[in-house]
Design goal:
The structure holds two protein chains of two kinds. Chain A has no helices and eleven strands. By secondary structure, chain A is mostly beta strands. In chain A, strands 2, 4, 5, 6, 9, 10 and 11 form a seven-stranded mixed beta sheet that branches. In chain A, strands 1-3-8-7 form a four-stranded antiparallel beta sheet, with no helix packed on it. Chain B has one domain: Sandwich (Immunoglobulin-like), CATH 2.60.40. By secondary structure, chain B is mostly beta strands. In chain B, strand 5 and strand 6 (72-77) form a beta hairpin. In chain B, strands 1, 3, 4, 7, 8 and 9 form a six-stranded mixed beta sheet that branches. A three-stranded antiparallel beta sheet of chain B has the order 2-6-5, with no helix packed on it. Classes of the chains: A mainly beta, B mainly beta. Chains A and B meet through strand 5 of A and strand 3, strand 7 and strand 8 of B.
């Protein structure tokens, strides 16, 4: 069974950089897509972008393009979500999810990483 | 890409059936049979309930069922139970970007 384990909660100040991670196990990492989902406090789920682990093709939500970077290190089966300069409005829970290539559903989810940005 | 439209809340008594709608456009819900549904309990990660409009993953109760007509997908919960009280989100593939879009989410309350 596919399992995704995310890095722990972070508290940062505005302007700081941050990279959170999502480590996969139990499957052939290269045949999957990884997606990142944002959930702001009290709000719904929102796609940030998806990455194909086989060749690192990445697609960003148009509303978030340029604000974050999605990447992966296949050698350690880990995907990343990165900010170069955090804002208070980045405060949210972030989930990673996986979907096998050729399917269109996200059947495994990480436990979530809470990011708090406050001065 | 705008979020798919769901009712903010739906409620029902134990044992009753409820249906949650998810309305999009011909570019997403209406264009592909790639609608999935997710259940999210407070403080928990989402859980896949339905994929490809109407298919249940192994281990998901058969009280959950999905369907689609035109640009609107639906999730029906029959025999409502207290444990079904949660938020529910639809999700559709959107080829234009290509990526996915969630619905606005529906809070289900068991009276």
């Amino acid at each position: 069974e596919v399992q995704l384990v995310q890095s722990g909660a972070e508290v940062k100040q505005p302007g700081e950089s941050l990279k959170i991670s999502c480590k996969g196990s139990g499957y052939s990492f290269n045949t999957y897509w990884i997606g990142w989902v944002r959930q702001m406090p009290g709000k719904g789920l929102e796609w940030m972008g998806i990455l194909y682990l086989h060749d690192s093709r990445t697609y960003y939500s148009p509303s978030l393009q340029g604000q974050v970077t999605i990447s992966a290190d296949r050698s350690i089966s880990t995907a990343y979500l990165q900010w170069s300069s955090l804002k208070a409005s980045d405060t949210a829970m972030y989930y990673c999810a996986s979907a096998r290539d050729g399917t269109f559903w996200w059947n495994s989810w990480g436990q979530g990483t809470l990011v708090t940005v406050s001065s | 890409q705008s979020a798919l439209t769901q009712p903010a809340s739906v409620s029902g008594s134990p044992g009753q059936s409820i249906t949650i709608s998810c309305t999009g456009t011909s570019s997403d819900v209406g264009g592909y049979n790639y609608v999935s549904w997710y259940q999210q309990h407070p403080g928990k990660a989402p859980k896949l309930l339905i994929y490809d409009v109407a298919t249940r993953p192994s281990g998901v109760s058969n009280r959950f069922s999905g369907s689609k007509s035109g640009n609107t997908a639906s999730l029906t919960i029959t025999g409502l139970q207290a444990e079904d009280e949660a938020d529910y989100y639809c999700n559709s593939y959107v080829r234009r970007w290509p990526t996915y879009v969630f619905g606005t989410g529906t809070q289900v309350t068991v009276l």
